[in-house]
Task: inverse folding
């Protein structure tokens, strides 16, 4: 299980690095917009992301 968790973490790092590498200006603007959001809205976005990821994992597995 730890190996799969490590692989998943490495894939997250790769995917997180794609946008800053390909289009750094757009990524910087998006991060600046995120800084303007309230904590509540960011939490909702994080929850939606986790639920979507869990649902996709369930469907693919």
Result:
């Amino acid at each position: 299980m730890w190996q799969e968790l490590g692989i998943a973490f490495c894939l997250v790092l790769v995917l997180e690095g794609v946008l800053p590498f390909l289009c750094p200006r757009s990524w910087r603007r998006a991060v600046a917009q995120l800084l303007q959001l309230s904590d509540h809205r960011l939490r909702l976005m994080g929850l939606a992301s986790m639920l979507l990821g869990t649902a996709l994992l369930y469907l693919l597995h």
The first helix runs from residue 2 to 22. The chain has one domain: 2-60.
